[in-house]
Specification:
mainly alpha; 72% helix; globular
Length: 281
């Protein structure tokens, strides 16, 4: 499998650029994009850095500049669609992800973005399949952060499938969750995604199978330390305090999540008591 996507006759090495973005400061990325204003690669790295910082507006502007240079670039089209996903505009972004997967099947980020959409739609089987496709691409073909996201997404979906399934489903799917999270931890222990996944596991797993809200609290607080704008982590941490009977902290953390992302589906779902994403009493 190629590690790049063909664009205007040259190789756009998305894996290398994703890894570079993870290791690049905002100031360095801004300076390089300014020095190389016609470089899709430099703009792509800057767009990714903005996404990592949850700065959706500047990410969109950067991917639009990139698309103006190369209108066929799958990375630019994915970046704009990813901004739409983060704004909860799923009807607009989903067809773009599907088209990119069809035309550029080696481009792993599109699978994961679509997997997140399917997760929000509660199509956990479809989301798991998409995440597993990235896992099957192999560690050599995917940058480490996206590979780790795939492991965590697959684990999270299996947990949801187990929760909503019968005894056989709980036995088959539930036992897959922790091994995949541990694999992700072995690759990127300081990842907010990994810490969120482990925290959610220890919070949501049934008591008979090892629920540990102290461990959940530790992991979720680490996730927030690494990524202070990760709204989902505040939601699960709020649930930790609800289990402990600390209503004030529960309200504070739920409202913090909604302050970061007013449309956050998990926060709205749990705060309103709909419980699609698992409420705990």
């Amino acid at each position: 499998m190629l590690l790049c996507i063909a664009s205007k006759g040259w190789c756009f090495n998305w894996k290398q650029l994703h890894q570079l973005a993870d290791d690049t400061t905002l100031n360095r990325a801004v300076a390089k994009a300014a020095d190389e204003s016609n470089s899709p690669e430099s703009l792509y790295v800057l767009g990714l850095v903005y996404l990592n910082r949850y700065d959706n507006g500047l990410a969109r502007e950067t991917f639009e500049k990139m698309l103006a240079i190369d209108g066929s670039n799958a990375g630019a089209r994915w970046g704009l669609a990813e901004c739409l996903r983060r704004e909860h505009q799923y009807l607009k972004c989903q067809p773009v992800f599907e088209e990119i997967i069809e035309s550029t099947p080696e481009f792993s980020p599109a699978y994961l973005s679509l997997a997140y959409v399917k997760y929000i739609q509660a199509d956990f089987n479809a989301s798991a399949r998409l995440a597993y496709k990235v896992i099957k691409q192999g560690r050599d073909e995917v940058d480490i952060s996206n590979f780790v996201r795939a492991l965590c997404l697959f684990a999270g979906n299996k947990g949801m499938i187990a929760h909503y399934g019968g005894l056989l489903s709980k036995a088959i799917n539930g036992r897959l969750v922790l091994p995949y999270l541990n694999k992700a931890y072995s690759l990127q222990p300081d990842s907010a995604t990994v810490q969120f996944g482990l925290g959610s596991y220890y919070l949501l797993v049934p008591p008979v199978f090892g629920r540990d809200i102290d461990k959940a609290e530790v992991h979720l607080k680490k996730a927030i330390t690494v990524s202070p704008l990760l709204a989902d982590a505040y939601v699960r941490l709020a649930q930790v305090y609800k289990l402990r009977g600390d209503t004030a902290k529960y309200e504070a953390y739920i409202k913090k999540a909604l302050g970061i992302d007013p449309g956050n589906e998990m926060a709205v779902d749990i705060y309103d008591g709909r419980c699609k994403f698992i409420c705990l009493e």
